[in-house]
């Protein structure tokens, strides 16, 4: 059953992630442009499909003055 309520969207600025590798090799790769983002485009497409999926959504956020519906799934909200 889908529950419906209004929500206010407040964007926040994300801070860059720091390298968890103590020798800095991940940062060196990022600086040199050698990192690969394989699968990122598909992930973005899949998340967009989930945001538009009315059938399996657990909740609907009504966003903004025009109350644009954003469909959400509890598994993503809990992550």
Structural notes for this entry:
This protein has 79 residues and is α+β, with helices and mostly antiparallel strands. The chain has one domain (3-9, 27-78). 33% of the residues lie in helices and 19% in strands. It contains three helices and three strands; from the N terminus they run βααββα. It has helices spanning 25-32, 40-52, 74-78; strands at residues 3-7, 59-63, 68-72. It has a three-stranded mixed β-sheet with strand order 1-2-3. The longest helix has 13 residues, at 40-52. The mean pLDDT is 73.
Name the descriptors.
BTB domain-containing protein, alpha+beta, SKP1/BTB/POZ_sf, 79 residues, single chain
Helix content: 25-40%
Distance between the termini: 21 Å
Count structural domains. 1
- Runs in which pLDDT lies below 50 for 5 or more consecutive residues are none
Mean pLDDT: 73
* Estimated radius of gyration: 18 Å
Strand order of the largest sheet: 1-2-3
What string, H for helix and E for strand, traces the elements in order? EHHEEH
Q: Strand fraction band?
A: 15-25%
Shape: elongated
Given helix and strand content, the structural type is alpha+beta
Region (Disordered): 1-33
Protein name: BTB domain-containing protein
InterPro entries: SKP1/BTB/POZ_sf
Organism: Blomia tropicalis (Mite)
């Amino acid at each position: 059953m889908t529950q419906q309520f209004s929500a206010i969207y407040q964007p926040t600025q994300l801070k860059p992630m720091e390298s968890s590798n103590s020798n800095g090799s991940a940062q060196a790769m990022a600086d040199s442009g050698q990192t690969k983002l394989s699968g990122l485009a598909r992930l973005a497409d899949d998340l967009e499909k989930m945001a538009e999926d009315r059938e399996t959504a657990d909740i609907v956020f009504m966003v903004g003055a025009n109350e644009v519906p954003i469909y959400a799934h509890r598994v993503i909200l809990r992550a």
